[in-house]
User: What shape does this take?
Amino acid sequence: MSAKLDGSRTLVLVTREGMGDAEPELSRKLFATWTRLVLENDSLPGAICFYAKGVRMVAEGSPVLETLKAFEAKGVRLIVCSTCLNFYGLVDRVKVGIVGGMGDILAAQWKAEKVIAL
Assistant: This one.
């Protein structure tokens, strides 16, 4: 990518432990590459919502924590589903983002002009 894209009205949905429907190792690798490239090109979305298995990406042990922390430092809202964290027993292991509810995710979806599901 050569020109900076304005993704401030874009919402990304992360519902898997990685990106795409592949073996877990490949899914995590794809997501790590995607986040790194988006960050390097400074074409950041306005928000990223993590729910279902996607909440594992913001928890201790995630391979993308440092990149997600950089997203947050640049103003990207990282919204993490509290119900999902409770279901997977990850409430105390969250390392980045704000824990919210489905109402927060719904509000972000309605506010977005574009939604990308990974």
